[in-house]
Design a protein that fits this description.
Low-confidence stretches: 441-450
CATH superfamily of the largest domain: Nucleoside phosphorylase/phosphoribosyltransferase catalytic domain
Number of strands: 12
Mean pLDDT: 92
Order of helices and strands: HHHHEHEHHEHHEHEHHHHEEHEEEHEEH
Distance between the termini: 58 Å
CATH architecture of the largest domain: 3-Layer(aba) Sandwich
Strand content: 5-15%
Helix content: 40-55%
Number of helices: 17
Shape: globular
């Protein structure tokens, strides 16, 4: 029996459960191009509005996993990975993968591009001249074996249905769907042949899941589906009420990571999230007794410079400059206009509308409004003021990097409007809000435990 795409869309639009056969048929059409972009977008919107049952979610994840190649590894250590739901200034993967590699793990990280207001790891890496984000399988395997890590984009062979659906979600207002996020993340990770996965589920004003209940629901979905599929997985819910790094924009974030690994900067939020995620990865992989011990090992790998060495070898192994760590300014693009974003009044930075900050970067050209849009790797914002700092009227809250004065001024206005200045300090936000384990028990937040 032929299953018409429009009938499958209609059934989900009307709130009916789809069969495994219907889901598999639709996913096959996404992968082979038999279903039009408009139909894929309509399906994504129907799922966004109506949701999927647990059974449908599992079926969608498995069908997307089976839409392409499934990798197998033969390495002298655990194959580990981390995935973030996305945020602003979230360049943790660039530091974390080499840190885990320096501790004995192997990290074949299949990363994504930016979605909506968030930056993408692949877009950041493409700011590095010559870096091949889509190497042939033999080259990727060689770099993972020799270096311990390789951060790359999806190949044409790996979960091709997800790659196409991912791009269409970005421009159809369906990015935030819990069901589609779960299937997208796990189809790639299951296809990558991992031993263990740590999920970084962002929560706050710059996250797709802004509230803790939403973030908890997504974390629980991913942890339960992944462990049910045989992939050891734990989730950390981390704070995204301000940019994670003090920079947002592709080349600017790469430059920040280089400074971080080289020891020139160790911002507390970025370092805390990096070590917590890395510690959880090492514990799941059997490389540390527990996450806390693993976090100490990650911190030591960064402090000693071993993580920086792994990062440099990975970049060179994938075609980037061998001297990127030593001479980042010689290789990373710079925008011609730099403009300070000035505080409108004196006081304390009490909050940041982080989504608005991310959208300002997109408007500069640092993200996409349509799938075919080209990224301008040089633009963005640096020196982002953290929540809690004291400012006087006219002090810089950030530096905008743009191609021309007009777009710089528009971005500066948007970023200034995203900052909230008050007379009283804001309550502190813990870096790691909650840990979600593979169990049915209700997790406690850090605040609830205190």
């Amino acid at each position: 029996m032929t299953l018409l795409p429009q009938e499958i869309i209609r059934r989900k639009r009307d709130g009916l459960d789809l069969s495994d056969e219907e889901i598999a048929c639709f996913v096959a059409g996404i992968a082979d191009g038999g279903i039009a972009d408009a139909q894929v977008g309509a399906f994504a919107m129907a799922v966004f509005l109506r949701g999927l049952s647990v059974g449908e979610r599992v079926a969608l994840t498995q069908a997307m996993t089976r839409s392409g190649e499934i990798l197998a590894w033969d390495l002298p250590g655990p194959v580990l990975d981390k995935h973030s739901t996305g945020g602003v200034g979230d360049c943790v993967s660039l530091a974390l993968a080499p840190a885990v590699a320096a501790c004995g793990g192997f990290v074949p990280m299949i990363a994504g591009r930016g979605l909506g207001h968030t930056g993408g790891t692949v877009d950041k890496l493409e700011a590095i001249p010559g870096y091949d984000t889509r190497p042939d399988p033999a080259r990727m395997r060689a770099v993972v074996r020799e270096t311990g890590c390789a951060i790359v984009g999806q190949s044409a062979a790996l979960a091709p249905a997800d790659r196409r659906l991912y791009a269409i979600r970005d421009v159809t207002g369906t990015v935030e769907s819990l069901d589609l996020i779960t299937a997208s993340i796990l189809s790639k990770k299951l296809a990558a042949g991992l031993d263990a996965l740590v999920m970084d589920v962002k929560c706050g004003s710059g996250a797709f899941m802004a509230s803790l209940p939403e973030a908890r629901e997504l974390a629980r979905s991913i942890v339960d589906v992944a462990n049910g599929a045989g992939l050891r997985t734990r989730a950390l819910i981390t704070d995204m009420n301000e940019a994670l790094a003090p920079a947002a924009g592709n080349a600017l974030e790469v430059a920040y990571v280089i400074d971080y690994l080289a020891g020139r900067r160790r911002d507390a939020r970025f370092h805390g999230v990096t070590t917590a995620l890395g510690g959880a990865m090492l514990a799941l992989g059997g490389l540390s007794e527990n996450p806390e011990a693993g976090a100490r090992l990650i911190a030591e790998a960064i402090e000693s410079g071993r993580a920086a060495e792994c990062f440099a070898r990975m970049v060179a192994g994938l075609g980037g400059p061998a001297d990127l760590m030593e001479r980042p300014d010689a290789h990373l693009a710079r925008a011609p206009v730099a403009l300070a974003v000035k505080a409108r009044r004196a006081g304390l930075v009490a909050g940041v509308e982080t989504r608005a900050l991310g959208l300002a970067i997109v408007a500069l050209g640092g993200g996409r409004s349509a799938p075919e849009d080209k990224i301008d790797h040089a633009v963005g914002a640096s020196a982002l003021a953290e929540i809690g700092v004291s400012v006087d009227a006219g002090d810089a809250l950030a530096i905008v990097h743009a191609r021309d004065r007009e777009t710089a001024e528009a971005a500066a206005r948007a970023i200034a409007g995203a900052y909230m200045i008050a007379d009283a300090p804001a309550p502190p936000h813990p870096f790691v809000v909650e840990v979600v384990e593979p169990s049915s028990s209700e997790p406690k937040t850090r605040m609830e435990e205190q």
